[in-house]
């Protein structure tokens, strides 16, 4: 038995590690960087680029790759090298970059506004200790995955952009020792005094009050003063916007949907309070947008359930004690309102015990909201650590059942396209329910026409994107299976899909790479979450791991169908008896009734 399983794992590893090598963009990125920077102490002279594309750039000073076999850079750490020049545009060719550290050098000029469209997956950005000037661009809030942002010890001026409050994954923020001024946005005060000191003009919590007044009063006074003056300007500006800015935006190919800043869009919602929320089943009481605004505390940050590529969802507590989940779709969709309505109506017909039912929707100008039933136990991602092994098996089996139904049970196969541990929600019985299915048609992300490089955000969440998408660019059922395999790996390992904690250190690569590395070293038990191993389930865990690995093999054709993944997991979990509550029969007929 052992022998068989080892051979099987070995086979999987071979497939896992033989993924195709990537484009040469990352090589050009480093070349561009080297050419545009001044390097007085010759620290980058060791950067040489042999001309065959198969040779690796991964061993160059400061460069780390997702894995050793492909030239795809995950982090670039060049601190304290006396490098000078502007932050170079060629960085945009290092699109997979997650960590950029240019600290303690002589970089000057301003922080490029485009930095987050160049590097959308940044998790850490350290530009501290340079000579950067100008304002902090508000677009830095577009780096949605930022965990740590250090801009301290520069010559930055202007305000702290309130958009930074949108970065809901931010754990560290350091803006100290610059020339910043103005009021610190209230939602940033928890980053502590050290993050803001050494800026003469900055005030408000956690620093001292602004003058004799406290922060709040200042805001009120400023708003009161400005409103009068601005009122008369507004009409003029609106006309200007309509004829000019809007036109430019359209020409730039932004598509129909335009994202508004936080303040703006809530204002827009408020001005359409009476719009009725369209519900698929006859509601007992009508719900208006105003009800959702109240129930989500004006779409406040405390109501955010999860924020993902497809949008931000909010918990809405209704007066009768029930709760809904309202999802504000990311802008950038191409569908007209009519197409959108018909597509959403189709999704609204889908009912399955392991899918979160879509209850309704609401359209206000370019804003589109989807209304789902709320799941009390939140996302698998947030709950995983607290689940014992049997509970994890249940989630795996049941989520697979929902997805298998989407793939094989619907009238026409329905792709999910955004599978991650954030779209598997847990209901009151910790049963899994998949949300966000079918959003692929509703959201599509703007692509720069000059940029032929593939942006994997179009095909799912970072860490879940199947390797073949770089060349096929077409979402597929087997791509969903890959993403689900990553979720299964999370369940076994307790790790995140990217930023894997490898003992003391962060592993350089994805969860799939990390697992395959350990398996090839013969340490299959090393990858299993410590909180579930050695409690009498080890054999079952190994079988589960094998199923997970079969989903993430790099050749799409060799991955099982979702229905087979479900069948294998079901067999493995059968003795737990969680098939009694619902009929075990797989509903292969399209079923419009609520079960
Ligand atoms: C690149 O290839 C050419 C011919 O194929 C060769 O002459 C040259 O030396 C190579 N350059 C490097 C840096 O390897
Ligand atoms: C940024 O870099 C500086 C200097 O290299 C280092 O001291 C600091 O800890 C870094 N900050 C963060 C947030 O990583």
From TrEMBL:
Residues 299-579 form the Protein kinase domain. GO terms for cellular component: membrane. Keywords: Leucine-rich repeat, Membrane, Repeat, Signal, Transmembrane, Transmembrane helix. It is found in: Membrane. It comes from the Eukaryota. Residues 1-23 form the signal peptide. SUPFAM superfamilies: L domain-like (SSF52058), Protein kinase-like (PK-like) (SSF56112). The keyword Signal applies. InterPro entries: Kinase-like_dom_sf, Leu-rich_rpt, LRR_dom_sf, LRR_N_plant-typ, PRK1-6/SRF4-like, Prot_kinase_dom, Ser-Thr/Tyr_kinase_cat_dom. The chain crosses the membrane at residues 218-244. PANTHER family: (WILD MALAYSIAN BANANA) HYPOTHETICAL PROTEIN, LEUCINE-RICH REPEAT RECEPTOR-LIKE PROTEIN KINASE PXC1. This is Protein kinase domain-containing protein. It comes from Eruca vesicaria subsp. sativa (Garden rocket).
């Amino acid at each position: 038995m052992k022998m068989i399983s080892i051979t099987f794992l070995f086979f999987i590893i071979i497939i896992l590690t033989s993924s195709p090598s990537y484009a040469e963009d990352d090589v050009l990125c480093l070349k561009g960087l080297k050419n545009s920077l001044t390097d007085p102490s010759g620290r980058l002279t060791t950067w040489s680029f042999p001309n065959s594309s198969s040779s690796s750039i991964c061993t160059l000073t400061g460069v780390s790759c997702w894995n050793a076999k492909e030239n795809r850079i995950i982090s670039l750490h060049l601190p304290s090298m006396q490098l000078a020049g502007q932050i170079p545009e060629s960085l945009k060719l290092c699109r997979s970059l997650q960590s950029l550290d240019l600290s303690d050098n002589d970089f000057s000029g301003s922080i490029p506004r485009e930095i987050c469209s160049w590097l959308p997956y940044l998790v850490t950005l350290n530009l501290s200790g340079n000579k950067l000037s100008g304002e902090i661009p508000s677009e830095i809030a577009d780096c949605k995955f930022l965990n740590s942002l250090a801009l301290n010890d520069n010559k930055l001026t202007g305000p702290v952009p309130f958009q930074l409050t949108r970065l809901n994954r931010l754990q560290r923020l350091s803006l100290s020792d610059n020339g910043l001024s103005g009021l610190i946005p209230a939602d940033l005060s928890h980053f502590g005094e050290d993050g803001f000191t050494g800026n003469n003009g900055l005030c408000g919590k956690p620093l001292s009050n602004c003058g004799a007044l406290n922060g709040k009063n200042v805001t009120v006074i400023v708003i009161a003063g400005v409103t009068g003056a601005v009122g008369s300007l507004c009409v003029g500006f609106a006309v200007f916007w309509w004829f000019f800015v809007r036109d430019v935006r359209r020409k730039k190919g932004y598509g129909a949907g335009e994202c508004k800043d936080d303040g703006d869009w809530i204002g827009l919602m408020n001005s359409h309070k009476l719009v009725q929320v369209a519900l698929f089943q006859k509601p007992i009481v009508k719900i208006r947008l105003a009800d959702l605004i109240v129930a989500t505390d004006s779409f406040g940050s405390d109501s955010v359930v999860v924020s993902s590529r497809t949008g931000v969802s909010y918990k809405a507590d209704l007066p009768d004690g029930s709760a809904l989940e309202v999802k504000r779709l990311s802008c950038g969709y191409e569908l007209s309102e009519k197409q959108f309505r018909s597509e959403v109506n189709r999704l609204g017909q889908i009912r399955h015990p392991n899918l979160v039912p879509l209850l309704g929707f609401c359209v206000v100008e370019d804003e589109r909201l989807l209304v789902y039933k709320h799941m009390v136990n939140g996302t698998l991602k947030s709950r995983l650590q607290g689940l014992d092994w049997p509970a994890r098996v249940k989630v795996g089996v049941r989520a697979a059942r929902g997805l298998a139904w989407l793939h094989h049970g619907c009238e026409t196969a329905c792709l999910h396209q955004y599978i991650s541990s954030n779209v598997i929600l847990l209901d009151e019985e910790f049963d899994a329910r998949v949300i966000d299915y079918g959003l692929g048609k509703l959201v599509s992300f703007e692509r720069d026409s000059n940029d032929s490089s593939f942006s994997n955000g179009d095909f799912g969440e970072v860490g879940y994107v199947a390797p073949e998408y770089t060349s096929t660019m077409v979402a597929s059922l087997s791509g969903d299976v890959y993403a689900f395999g990553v979720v299964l790996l999370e369940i076994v390992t307790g790790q995140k899909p990217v930023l894997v904690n490898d003992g003391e250190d962060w592993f350089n690569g994805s969860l799939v790479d990390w697992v395959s590395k350990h398996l090839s070293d013969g340490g299959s038990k090393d990858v299993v979450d410590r909180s579930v191993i050695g409690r009498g389930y080890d054999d079952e865990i190994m079988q589960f791991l094998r199923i997970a690995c079969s989903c993430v093999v790099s050749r799409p054709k060799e991955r099982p169908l979702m229905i087979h993944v479900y069948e294998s997991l079901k067999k493995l979990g059968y003795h737990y008896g969680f098939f009694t509550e619902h009929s075990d029969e797989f509903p292969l007929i399209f079923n419009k009734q609520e079960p």
